[in-house]
């Protein structure tokens, strides 16, 4: 990586950033290298707008350990992940300063809404600024991937593709933008069916699936064709084609996980009812399709004119606790100091 220390970096040692979660349309599931977080397959996603993570990082010379606050609370497991991520930045900057990290989400954490993606994208962006490191967006994407795989995509906005890559060191497994959010401004209704953290995290779920699911090889072998189809649909703004490939990839990923031993069932009853409702709407001519990540929340992607109808239909389903409304958003970006208090 081409990294330089900026001696004149404004706000050196202290910075704040915001990043948004992303939702994969062609799914990422499985790793070919767990240490470097290299994916078994490529993926394509959309970055959301009104859901966000805001993170402030302050490096303190002479401080030995990191102090981490997530949504105002301490989490030992997540603190270890954050320290490991900061270590990558400290190594490149040639410092050993401990850090004070404060991070907030405005949406449920660890519940299938890609909070790790937005969280670690914001952490890498803010940490690099604080240490005065000059990193391209591609370099930030590689570092974010090391911390949480799908965070590679949240560095960018709009429609994003994360390359599977072939190199053993992972330097070619990087995300890149496909299309700006404004170029095809779809909307997303997020049906919240549980606010609890999922019982099996994505990393453990991927490991179990790769080791025990009989469908793993088929999943890997068919992914390139799915990526080609989705990429062409996005560039052509072909909603029907994107709807078909997105639901196909979603159901294929969950079938893969369900066939693990023991099987991984991330849905609840309301999730399934939401799927049926979205398909019924599409049969009635409403431009909408669903996707579901490793969690119980359903995301209904639709044309802007259909968003109110889609939200009303999802709210009517028993077990849906809330319906969030978001457009497509930007990638990771700097925030003013004190952003977490606003």
TrEMBL record:
One function term, GO molecular function aspect: diphosphomevalonate decarboxylase activity
Domain of life assignment: Bacteria
UniProt keyword list: ATP-binding, Lipid biosynthesis, Lipid metabolism, Lyase, Nucleotide-binding
Enzyme class (EC, first level): lyase
Residue ranges of domain Diphosphomevalonate decarboxylase-like N-terminal in the record: 19-175
Record-linked Pfam families: MDD_C, MVD-like_N
Record-annotated Mvd1 C-terminal domain positions: 189-312
SUPFAM superfamilies: GHMP Kinase, C-terminal domain (SSF55060), Ribosomal protein S5 domain 2-like (SSF54211)
InterPro entries, sorted: GHMP_kinase_C_sf (IPR036554), Mev_decarb (IPR005935), Mev_diP_decarb (IPR029765), MVD-like_N (IPR053859), Mvd1_C (IPR041431), Ribosomal_Su5_D2-typ_SF (IPR020568), Ribsml_uS5_D2-typ_fold_subgr (IPR014721)
Family per record: Belongs to the diphosphomevalonate decarboxylase family.
Name by which UniProt lists this protein: diphosphomevalonate decarboxylase
Upper taxonomic lineage: Bacteria, Pseudomonadati, Pseudomonadota, Gammaproteobacteria, Lysobacterales
């Amino acid at each position: 990586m081409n990294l330089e220390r900026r001696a004149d970096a404004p706000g050196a040692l202290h910075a704040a950033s915001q990043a948004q979660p992303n939702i994969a349309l062609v799914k990422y599931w499985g790793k070919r290298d767990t240490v470097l977080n290299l994916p078994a397959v490529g993926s394509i996603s959309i970055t959301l707008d009104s859901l966000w993570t805001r993170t402030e990082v302050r490096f303190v010379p002479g401080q030995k350990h990191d102090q981490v606050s997530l949504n105002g609370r301490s989490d030992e497991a997540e603190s270890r992940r954050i320290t490991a991520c900061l270590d990558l930045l400290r190594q490149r900057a040639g410092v050993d300063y401990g850090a004070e990290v404060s991070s907030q989400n405005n949406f449920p954490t660890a519940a299938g809404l890609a909070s790790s993606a937005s969280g670690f994208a914001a952490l890498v962006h803010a940490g690099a600024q604080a240490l005065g490191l000059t990193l391209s967006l591609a370099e930030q994407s590689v570092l974010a991937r090391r911390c949480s795989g799908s965070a590679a995509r949240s560095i960018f906005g709009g429609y994003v593709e994360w390359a599977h890559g072939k190199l053993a060191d992972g330097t070619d497994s990087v995300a890149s933008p496909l299309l700006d959010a404004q170029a095809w401004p779809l909307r997303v209704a997020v049906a919240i069916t549980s606010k609890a953290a999922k019982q099996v995290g994505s990393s453990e779920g991927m490991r179990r699936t790769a080791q025990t699911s009989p469908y793993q090889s088929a999943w890997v072998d068919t992914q390139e064709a799915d990526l080609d189809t989705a990429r062409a649909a996005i560039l052509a703004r072909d909603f029907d084609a994107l709807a078909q490939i997105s639901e196909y990839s979603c159901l294929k990923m969950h079938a893969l996980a369900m066939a693990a031993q023991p099987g991984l069932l991330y849905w609840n009853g309301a999730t399934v009812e939401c799927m049926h409702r979205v398909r019924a709407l599409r049969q009635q001519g409403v431009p909408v399709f669903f996707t579901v990540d490793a969690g119980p929340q359903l995301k209904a992607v639709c044309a802007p004119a259909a968003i109110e109808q889609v939200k009303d239909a999802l709210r009517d389903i028993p077990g849906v606790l809330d319906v969030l409304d978001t457009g497509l958003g930007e990638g990771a970006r700097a925030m003013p100091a004190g952003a977490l208090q606003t």
